[in-house]
Specification:
Layout (H helix, E strand, L loop, with lengths): L1 H5 L6 H30 L4 H49 L3 H6 L2 H23 L1 H19 L1 H48 L1 H6 L3 H26 L2 H25 L1 H4 L3 H42 L20 E9 L5 E10 L4 E6 L5 H6 L9 E6 L2 E2 L5 H6 L1 E4 L8 E2 H5 L8 H10 L3 H4 L9 E2 L8 H14 L4 E5 L7 H14 L4 E5 L11 E6 L2 E6 L1 H7 L1 H12 L6
Parallel strand pairs: 3-10, 3-11, 6-9, 9-10
Antiparallel strand pairs: 1-2, 1-4, 4-5, 7-8, 11-12
Helix pairs in contact: 2-3, 2-6, 2-12, 3-5, 5-6, 5-7, 5-12, 6-7, 6-12, 7-9, 7-10, 7-12, 10-12, 16-18, 20-21
Length: 575
């Protein structure tokens, strides 16, 4: 885990090395100051000596300040850079996830890992390369100097250090499991927030604000409980440190005073006592700082495990060696295909279907019949559980993933637009598209009808998720974006449900002109959207219930006839 995380340091290795170098130099200066102060106090009557030592003290103090500033500068650069790279590495890994991988992690959990957990790692790393280096070096150097002043009196440190170490160990081992649970609750809290903001219109229309507040309060209360438990444990840290510090001070003061009184026999001076006090503070303050590192590392350990979980997750969908880089045409063949989502029963069972290149295929069926699952296997958003899917006569698993997906355009049920102008959103389909090509695609998708009414036209800014356009407008923009891709296979997954029947017909007619050679798969709830297709597939319960033209299915397929009767004879279709 540590090795994997450290791989994100990269170009900030030099800053990570320079930080402890300057920390060591800073400690050396700070260790010399009490030693010089003792000399100055013991020779206070010799003004020339006092002046010389005073100048050296000022120089040491200035260098200590300079080295401290440089250590802080490099520590900030190294930790912030490490966090930046780690966040980027996580995001890149997430971009390579298959849908099955994404299903494993909640959206809130991924957001928490990219924010709170990364911040914890950043803070811990800064403390490790600075405080965790400074504290032991300061403690060892101060111990050496203290033993040099008076070995007998310094024995008190050897008693206190193990006591403090035991206290820190108990706090760390007890607090870690609590932090683990707390971060999992953070995931749930972020999920509640995201879900609420995404569906805020539904929440308000159903007057469910109180219910949402209750859900949020429940998660916030859990975070409070875990946080309070952890903080109560960590609160023992400071009192334990203070107890040890002042106990040492009292012992040193008591015995130091006796040594001074008997100075002729011990050689212990007031200057020695002053330096011992300073070294005592340096030793125990270094321990206190080290305890802060332990606390931060305890929190960061939980975060590191969660981040490593993302970095260690490899996509279940990978390129094979010598993967094909070209898709010949839009032929599709489902050969004894079965598919199940992870942890669920099979969604598709023994699907056999041959789709010629350039044909238009309608797919219809009830909710949960497997329509979306079927088409998601074509661009390898998921891999089949059994059987195989071929495109252009080749198994989709033998294609380079980017090549395959560049040949397939999908307009999903949940139409997604991104923050930016309409023009920028269109160029997701083709980043090199000219303004004329963008306008032609929007005309084909009947999107120019409303774009031309906007004051800024194609430069109109789309809010996050397309919140400032209607559902029908959003669908038409997504269809235009897909047409710009000029794909060999176009999949429309119930993507005209929010437009009227006339507009739906115009879009289908325009698609035939814009991409005549492309294979088109249209998933729809309305018969009118698929009745003119070359082939219509009826899905039911994860199996193909019937295949044929509109006329053939009306005669031979009960499910299709039932849907037709309910929509057309029952007045379900738009006039």
């Amino acid at each position: 885990m540590i090795k994997k995380l450290m791989g994100s340091i990269r170009e900030y290795k030099s800053a990570s090395v320079m930080t402890p170098v300057f920390v060591v130099l800073e400690v050396i200066m700070e260790i010399l100051i009490p030693f010089l102060m003792a000399k100055l106090i013991d020779n206070i009557s010799d003004m020339n000596y006092v002046m010389k030592i005073g100048i050296v003290l000022i120089i040491c103090a200035c260098f200590a300040l300079l080295f401290g500033v440089l250590a802080g500068k490099y520590a900030a650069t190294a930790s912030a850079g490490f966090a930046k790279n780690l966040r980027l590495d996580m995001f890149k890994r997430i971009q390579k996830f298959s849908f099955a991988n994404i299903d494993k992690f909640s959206t809130g959990g991924i957001v928490t890992r990219l924010t709170t957990d990364i911040t914890n790692i950043q803070n811990a790393y800064m403390m490790i390369i600075r405080i965790a280096v400074r504290s032991p070096i300061m403690m060892v150097c101060a111990l050496v100097m203290a033993f040099g002043v008076n070995a007998k009196l310094s024995v008190v440190y050897l008693i206190m250090i193990p006591v403090l170490g035991f206290i820190l160990f108990k706090i760390m081992t007890t607090a870690h499991p609590i932090f683990e649970k707390m971060f999992h609750v953070y995931d749930k809290l972020n999920n509640v927030i995201q879900e609420n903001l995404h569906g805020i219109r539904v929440v308000k229309s159903f007057v469910r604000e109180g219910h949402e507040e209750e859900k949020f309060n429940e998660q916030a209360e859990d975070i409070y409980k875990y946080s309070a438990r952890a903080e109560k444990l960590l609160a023992f840290n400071a009192p334990a440190m203070q107890l040890c510090v002042y106990s040492c001070m009292m012992v040193i003061f008591w015995f130091g005073a006796h040594f001074i009184v008997n100075g002729n026999n011990t050689g212990f001076t007031i200057g020695n006592l002053t330096s011992m006090f300073t070294y005592t503070m340096q030793i125990l303050m270094s321990l206190m700082m080290f305890s802060m590192v332990f606390v931060m590392v305890t929190m960061a350990r939980s975060s590191a495990e969660r981040i490593s979980e993302i970095l260690d997750t490899t996509s279940e969908i990978k390129n094979k060696d010598n993967a094909a880089k070209y898709v010949i045409d839009g032929r599709i063949h489902f050969d004894h295909v079965s598919f199940a989502y992870p942890g669920h029963s099979r969604s598709l069972k023994n699907i056999n279907l041959e789709i010629p290149s350039g044909s238009t295929v309608g797919i219809i069926g009830g909710t949960g019949s497997g329509k979306s699952s079927l088409v998601q296997l074509i661009p390898r958003l998921y891999d089949v559980t059994e059987g195989r899917v071929t495109v252009g006569g080749r198994d989709v698993r033998n294609y380079d993933i980017e090549t395959l997906r560049n040949s397939v355009a999908m307009v999903l049920q949940k139409n997604v637009l991104f923050s930016g102008t309409i023009r920028e959103n269109m160029r997701w389909g083709n980043e090199d598209a000219t303004d004329e090509e963008i306008k032609a695609a929007c005309h084909a998708a009947c999107a120019d009808e409303f774009i031309d009414t906007f004051p800024d036209g194609y430069d109109t800014y789309i809010e996050q998720g397309g919140a400032n356009v209607s559902g029908g407008q959003r669908q038409r923009l997504c269809i235009a974006r897909a047409l710009l891709k000029k794909p060999k296979i176009l999949i429309l997954d119930d993507s005209t449900s929010a437009v009227d029947t006339k507009t739906d017909a115009l879009i289908r007619e325009a698609m035939q002109k814009e991409i005549p050679g492309a294979t088109k798969l249209i998933i729809a709830q309305r018969i009118s959207s698929v009745e003119h297709a070359d082939m219509i597939v009826v899905m039911n319960g994860g199996i193909i219930n019937g295949v044929g033209t509109h006329e053939e299915l009306l005669k031979s397929n009960e499910i299709y006839k039932e849907i037709y009767d309910s929509q057309v004879k029952g007045g379900g279709e738009d006039e």
